[in-house]
Amino acid sequence: xxxxxxxxxxxxxxxxxxxxxxxxxxxxxxxxxxxxxxxxxxxxxxxxxxxxxxxxxxxxxxxxxxxxxxxxxxxxxxxxxxxxxxxxxxxxxxxxxxxxxxxxxxxxxxxxxxxxxxxxxxxxxxxxxxxxxxxxxxxxxxxxxxxxxxxxxxxxxxxxxxxxxxxxxxxxxxxxxxxxxxxxxxxxxxxxxxxxxxxxxxxxxxxxxxxxxxxxxxxxxxxxxxxxxxxxxxxxxxxxxxxxxxxxxxxxxxxxxxxxxxxxxxxxxxxxxxxxxxxxxxxxxxxxxxxxxxxxxxxxxxxxxxxxxxxxxxxxxxxxxxxxxxxxxxxxxxxxxxxxxxxxxxxxxxxx
Length: 352
Ligand SMILES: [Zn+2]
Description:
- By secondary structure, this protein is an alpha+beta fold.
- It has 2 domains: 116 residues, Copper Amine Oxidase, Chain A, domain 1 (2-Layer Sandwich); 205 residues, Aminopeptidase (3-Layer(aba) Sandwich).
- 31% of the residues lie in helices and 25% in strands.
- α3 crosses α6.
- The site of zinc ion has 7 residues, from loops.
């Protein structure tokens, strides 16, 4: 898959339209539908609607998780931190730095009455679950893990013609290694393909459903046509309903379509974060971010699901690295560690 994301320019409409479209609603603490009872008294969170998007005041929201705000650049960049977490948000940016990792939001942060606001959907469905998984309810205990090796057969995926390397070879190799690592313990591991064959996208989701999967992990490598300098690691989870995907510059009517995978938005966030974190720590590759997309295997997943783009086949250095067994073994180990961190988070959450 080819994805290059330049930072979005500030929207002039958003800047000009604020006083007209802004409705500030003072909220007492939001009902804890997704959050455990806070340790300290919750700070009042303020909500606003800007260009049809619901926002929450970031300082108030993060205070509910014990994170204290500090301006790094007054009116532009703010840091929210406690002993465990550090989140950095910036005006007009569509991403935050979450414990040093790039995490993409649906819409950029805005400044209202001198306070930084972040999209409410991202606060509730992305950041809150990562900050406090104990506040979530377990939708599926972890028993069966489905590993999906991208492409196969006559679908070679991304190809580095100069080095004669095909994505499908390496997705299968990493998937086999991952299956070996995860299959050692208490979990049952199922692969959507274990040899070089073509499997349609819908059939991958169907195989996972038939196996009664509790977790779905799709392994891929990336390519950016004509941009050989582009490299790094990105991790995808399903875009929540009514949000645009990371690669979309505009919102579309189809963003409102109901997707089966959206039943797992909260756990997708926890899963995506931990896998991305482990990948970046282990591989030391360029951080291209935890992103959201409506890829078929994510849309159709009947359980929490993640798609890993571990590196770029189109970057000569990265392609050579991917071709090394040692590196592929590191990728598998990182994903396995991410699954273990996810399982630990799951263990802290409420049983249904
Ligand atoms: Zn792929």
